[in-house]
Design a protein that fits this description.
elongated, single chain, 35% helix, alpha/beta, 9 helices
Length: 252
C-alpha cells in the first residue's frame, strides 16, 4: 500500500537535498580593493590590474591568507569615497586623521615612498645641495602630478604647476616652463626611461623628512575589518623571507 507524502514534507525534503548539493555551495566572499592609476604602484595593463601594491596584496592576502580578492583601478577621489561609504573594502595610502576616522590601518607598510626634487642637469642652481627642506622650494616653479594629496598638504604655499602625467611634467621641465619636478623617486625612475634622451638629463635631490609608509586601510564596517593582525604578521614574514624585495625588483 502506498502512503501519500504530504506536500509540505515533499517540499522540505527538496530544500534539504538542494542545500546539501555540492552545486549549491556558496562561493567565498571576495575582498574588494581599489587603487589609483599610479605606476608602478598600481595600474592597468591590457585590462589587468598590476603593480607593486597589487602584487604584495595578492601574495599576502590571496596566496598566504587565502582570501579571494577583487581588484579595480579608479580615480583616486572615487576610491576614497567608495571605501568611506563601504562600497569597497580597502585601499592603500598614507595615514591621515580623516582616513583613520572611517578605516582601520595596518601597522606594517604594504610599500614605502619618499619625495625628491628633479631638476635639469644643466641647471646651475642648487648644485652643491645634497637635500632640501620644503621651505627651500618656495622660490621655484614646481611641477606636480595633478591630484597629489602630498602636494596639497605640503606645497600649499608654493608656486605649483600640475600635470596629469609624469611624461607631461618632463616635457614642461625640458621647455623650462617649470624649474623642478617634485615626485616619488621610485615613480619618476620608473617613467624616466620613457622620456630620457642624450640632450636632457635630470639630477635628483631628496626632500628631507619625507619618508612615507603606504598602509592598507580597511573600512571599519567591512567583513574583513578584523584581518589586520594576521595581515601584519604576514607582511613581516614576507619581509624576512625576501618576498617584498623580490616584488619591488620586478618594477625596477
Amino acid at each position: 500500500m502506498r502512503v501519500a507524502v504530504p506536500l509540505y514534507i515533499h517540499s522540505l525534503m527538496l530544500l534539504i537535498s538542494l542545500f546539501l548539493s555540492p552545486f549549491s555551495t556558496a562561493q567565498p566572499l571576495a575582498m574588494k580593493i581599489a587603487y589609483a592609476e599610479y605606476e608602478p604602484y598600481s595600474f592597468t595593463d591590457n585590462g589587468q590590474v598590476r603593480g607593486i601594491e597589487v602584487d604584495v596584496l595578492n601574495e599576502a592576502l590571496g596566496t598566504r591568507m587565502q582570501i579571494p580578492l577583487q581588484h579595480s583601478v579608479l580615480p583616486w577621489k572615487r576610491v576614497q569615497t567608495y571605501v568611506r561609504n563601504g562600497e569597497i573594502d580597502a585601499y592603500v595610502a598614507v595615514a591621515t586623521p580623516e582616513r583613520l576616522s572611517y578605516a582601520f590601518a595596518s601597522e606594517e607598510a604594504v610599500t614605502f615612498g619618499s619625495v625628491s626634487v628633479f631638476m635639469n642637469q644643466a641647471d646651475p642652481r642648487l648644485e652643491e645641495t645634497s637635500s632640501l627642506s620644503l621651505e627651500a622650494l618656495k622660490p621655484y616653479r614646481i611641477g606636480v602630478t595633478a591630484g597629489s594629496g602630498w602636494a596639497k598638504r605640503n606645497l600649499n604655499q608654493h608656486l605649483i604647476q600640475p600635470a596629469y602625467s609624469t611624461s607631461s611634467l618632463a616635457d614642461m621641465l625640458k621647455m623650462k616652463r617649470i624649474d623642478m619636478i617634485v615626485e616619488n623617486p621610485y615613480i619618476f625612475s620608473y617613467h624616466l626611461k620613457q622620456f630620457a634622451d642624450d640632450d636632457f638629463t635630470v639630477r635628483e635631490i631628496p626632500v628631507a623628512g619625507q619618508q612615507l609608509s603606504l598602509l592598507l586601510f580597511i573600512n571599519k564596517s567591512s567583513t574583513f575589518a578584523d584581518i589586520l593582525p594576521v595581515f601584519n604578521a604576514t607582511l613581516r614574514a614576507m619581509k624576512e623571507d625576501g618576498t617584498l624585495d623580490r616584488i619591488h625588483a620586478r618594477y625596477r
